[in-house]
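in:
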């Protein structure tokens, strides 16, 4: 790995189960892999602040350490493609149509044998230059509870819907997609009953969502349902078209929602007023009255709950 300090770092990781690589001289996956092959098991790995810019090679996800890895932080590098994490080859950013066709054709197909499930629980991909949210992560990582992919250096593409891209997940609890230049966001198609049954927190702040916020939910359709969603944050949308309204269907399809934050949007007060006039919103307020009062009594935030 070039240098005693790097060697000592890997030797220490073999004992502690935790590895951090933040060397700005780190430029190649082959160099990194030379150290990783010596680690048969790891619990936590952080590779952040390096100059890695090539797509993740499939060989990286075949390392033996993945059999025990629960936490992976690949934030703030220069990565352009991490599709190998989902068990697929790099999808070229210059062929967006090819990427969409591949995901459309593969989303319902069985996972390839090369993409056997792995025990990862937390993944951070923030601060890179990704052209696409990596597909099929839920199939590859069925225990994944936390996914952070924020502050991408270019607009992030999520083909079709979150479910179509990631796959259905029974374990995902927190999803952070802040500051990705998203102009639209759809949770799932209306044929999927409960795509993310454990999802509690969805952060979409500092994107470019404009017009009426719907999350792709439709008032004349029963599905999808997000039964566990508690917090939805869409603060400070920065698109050419401002955020103008919140579709009340959200309160029907997300029955457990008790925090909706709209801070920083130029039409925030108008959105609040429009919601306050709706029966479905008032019923939602009544259902969450106890939670609202507790938050206010504790000096906490109670956005859109008064």
């Amino acid at each position: 790995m070039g240098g005693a300090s790097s060697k000592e770092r890997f030797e220490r990781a073999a004992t502690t189960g935790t590895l951090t690589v933040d060397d700005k001289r780190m430029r190649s996956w082959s160099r990194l892999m030379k150290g990783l092959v010596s680690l048969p098991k790891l619990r936590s790995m952080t590779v952040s602040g390096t100059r890695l810019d090539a797509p993740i090679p499939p060989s990286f996800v075949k390392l033996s350490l993945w059999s025990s890895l629960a936490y992976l932080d690949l934030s703030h590098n220069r990565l352009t493609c991490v599709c190998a994490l989902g068990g697929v080859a790099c999808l070229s950013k210059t062929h967006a149509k090819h990427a969409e066709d591949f995901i459309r054709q593969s989303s319902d197909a069985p996972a390839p044998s090369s993409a056997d499930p792995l025990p990862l629980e937390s993944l951070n991909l923030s601060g890179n230059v990704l052209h696409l949210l990596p597909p099929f992560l839920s199939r590859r990582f069925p225990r994944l509870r936390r996914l952070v992919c924020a502050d991408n250096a270019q607009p992030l593409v999520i083909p079709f819907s979150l479910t179509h891209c990631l796959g259905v997940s029974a374990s995902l609890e927190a999803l952070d997609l802040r500051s990705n230049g998203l102009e639209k966001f759809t949770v799932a198609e209306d044929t999927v009953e409960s795509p993310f049954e454990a999802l509690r927190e969805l952060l979409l702040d500092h994107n470019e969502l404009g017009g009426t916020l719907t999350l792709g939910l439709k008032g004349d359709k029963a599905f999808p349902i997000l039964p566990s969603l508690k917090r939805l944050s869409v603060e400070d949308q920065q698109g050419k078209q401002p955020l103008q309204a919140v579709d009340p269907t959200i309160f029907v399809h997300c029955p457990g929602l008790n925090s909706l934050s709209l801070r920083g949007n130029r039409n925030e007060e108008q959105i609040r007023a429009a919601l306050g006039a709706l029966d479905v919103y008032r019923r939602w307020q009544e259902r969450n009255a106890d939670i609202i009062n507790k938050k206010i009594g504790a000096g906490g935030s109670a956005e859109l709950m008064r």
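note: The mean pLDDT is 89.
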